[in-house]
Design goal:
CATH superfamily of the domain at 11-44 and 84-142 and 185-317 and 325-333: Zn peptidases
Largest sheet: 8 strands, mixed
CATH class of the domain at 11-44 and 84-142 and 185-317 and 325-333: Alpha Beta
CATH architecture of the domain at 11-44 and 84-142 and 185-317 and 325-333: 3-Layer(aba) Sandwich
Shape: globular
Order of helices and strands: HEEHHEHHEHHEEHEEHEHEH
Number of helices: 11
């Protein structure tokens, strides 16, 4: 059985889709460790910020407008980052369908998404469809829903020289991953063996994707950053964290609850539990807050292949679109961030 035409995940399919963009603007904002272009699609008017300091210095001065600008922006800004891990390509299918909605009002199945179509026009939306093209280009398959368990481990996390599986989270105990010790470098990693999620303090030579994404966040100063992933037990948001303030954590819980309610309304099997983050050091997701005060949202979609959590291609795409609709609605109707009360 072939992969449905609406389920686009390959680098070639992404390139074709970007060439067809008419309402947005496509720009290169950096390069991967192997030199591949990092591209973003911009929808909605840019409201330039005249700043005199980075966020840290502006806050230390007691004058946050030195970073955010003197004039309040008319549009909230949403930044969406897909496929930081190259083999978690369900998120690519999600954003390809989102781009179709933003361009035509319909997803690639022909289904209309009126709320997204109408409300997105009131935001500035920046989409990075493939944040780790090195990892994605390493994977010879476009459809993880058909992978065996062994293929999932190989493509996502890699194999040692003797052919044994590296597995998760063991794949994080070597960083950068020593390429001479592996027979297959999993899609987690860029060409230098770096997982961009944990590249914050490695420097731009080893982790150019991480630094390009943070520079894009500084430039755009988004109110919210959606960091898209996938796993066997998804879909869900990972909420909380040691390095963001309590009012931001509460907002994450709120978005998670709104998303689960929206899934229930569409019979898309919301999870009856909440997943709390447990990272003990700063990750890329939380770093977005520290460079521009964005609300960081980490989403794990379903990859569809887990035996007790099967999802069809259409369900995977719809789940991502329901999530986008939920986040966009909140941004337009309420604003992504709520201020802490004194």
């Amino acid at each position: 059985m072939s992969t449905p035409s609406f389920y686009e995940t390959s680098l070639e399919a992404v390139e074709r889709r970007l060439k067809g963009v008419r309402l947005g603007e496509v720009h290169n904002f950096g390069h991967s460790a192997s030199g591949k272009e990092l591209k973003a699609i911009y929808y909605g008017a840019n409201e330039p910020i005249e700043r005199t300091a980075n966020l840290s210095s502006a806050l230390a001065s007691g004058k946050p407008e030195a970073f955010f600008g003197e004039r309040k922006r008319e549009r909230q800004v949403l930044m969406i980052v897909s496929a930081v891990h190259g083999a978690e390509m369900e998120s690519i299918a999600g954003v390809m369908n989102l781009i179709s909605v933003l361009e035509t009002g319909c997803d690639l199945k022909g289904t209309r998404w009126n709320v997204i179509d109408e409300m997105a026009k009131r935001l500035r939306i920046v989409i990075v469809p493939v944040a780790n093209p090195d990892g994605r280009s390493r994977i010879p398959s476009d459809d993880p829903t058909r992978w065996s368990l062994d293929e999932q481990e190989k493509y996502r996390h890699g194999l040692w020289k003797d052919g044994s599986e590296i597995t998760w989270p063991a794949c994080k105990a070597w960083h950068p991953m020593p390429k001479e010790k592996v027979s297959f470098l999993g899609g987690y990693f860029n060409e230098r063996g770096v997982n961009p999620t944990h590249g914050v303090f490695l420097g731009g030579d080893l982790a150019p994707e991480t630094y390009a994404l943070l520079e894009l966040a500084v430039e755009e100063a988004p109110d919210c950053v959606l960091d898209l992933h996938s796993c066997g037990s998804g879909p869900f948001f990972i909420v909380g964290g040691k390095f963001i303030p309590e009012n931001y954590v509460r907002r994450q819980y709120y978005v998670d609850g709104a998303f689960r309610s929206a899934l229930a309304q569409r019979n898309l099997r919301p999870k009856p539990w909440t997943v709390e983050g447990g990272e003990q050091a700063l990750t890329l997701n939380e770093a977005y807050f520290h460079v521009c005060h964005a609300l960081p949202l980490l989403f794990e979609g379903a990859h569809g292949a887990q035996e007790n959590n099967r999802y069809t291609h259409a369900e995977i795409v719809d789940t991502y679109l329901v999530m986008f609709e939920t986040v966009i609605r909140i941004g337009v109707q309420e604003g992504f961030k709520l201020q802490a009360r004194a």
